Amino acid sequence: MKKTLRLVVKIAGLLAVYMFMQALFQTLATSLMISLSDLPADTVNFIYNAEYLNNHPVVQDCMTDAIALSTLLSTVAMLLFIHFTGYYKLRRGLWRSLAPKPLLISTLLVFTSIFTLNIFVQWFPLENNLNDVFNGLSHNWLGILGLAVLAPLLEEILFRGAVQGLLMRFFGRPWPAIVIAALVFGIAHWNPVQTVYATIFGIVLGWIYYRTGTLLSVIVGHVLNNSMAVMTTVWVDGNVDEEAVEAAAGASYSMAGFVIFGLLSVFLAIKLNKSLPPVEKLVEEK
Prior knowledge:
Elements: H1 2-36, H2 50-55, H3 57-84, H4 100-121, H5 131-137, H6 141-171, H7 174-187, H8 192-212, H9 215-236, H10 242-252, H11 255-275, H12 279-285
Helix pairs in contact: 1-3, 1-6, 3-6, 4-8, 4-9, 4-11, 6-7, 6-9, 7-8, 8-9
């Protein structure tokens, strides 16, 4: 019981620091961007005026810049915290590279899983509370860096390296650790559609990390996922009308596509498993 309680406290404490870092640097970055912007004097209390916030373009740009900057700062701060507190030591040996073949297979597995999951979540009327924020960041160079590179880097070190690592040492078995870490990963997004997507995607990434023994493969896969989302957002914006998107969705997000990409994912998972040595040998090589 004491061991379980210590585990819960460790994970809860880590997540609390993660949320605190985000809130702290969001506040600091917002204050900095407001002071550097050309906002009129009557916007001192704009944060408390939702209507003003939603309709003032300068305020929107200011908030987007603040979120992008805070992502950069909070990522650096959180990585240092994880390293120096011992949750996950960022030693070079733990970042060992994969041979080209398993790295290619794991990347393809992530790619097919992305398509499978995108089809799956379309079948559920899940709310997307962060759509406007994501769109804004996708048109901001620092926001793109944060979404496509920094967020995947930190999240894999945090949820796979630290949280899954703690759970793996506690259970001594992979699947409870993988599933629970994925659930924590999904819930931490605080957005219904992302929670479902991230939880299932987290299971895929968690298994790849367990099987390959390196964060490199899952970081590459996570970067691929987020980069595709950013590129899709940028391409669709202003180029495709909503009716065309819905029509394309009706044709693409079908059971046939789900089955095809799902079977490809299973096939690639089997291939990846066969292309790697036993897990025990990977642990010995670390």
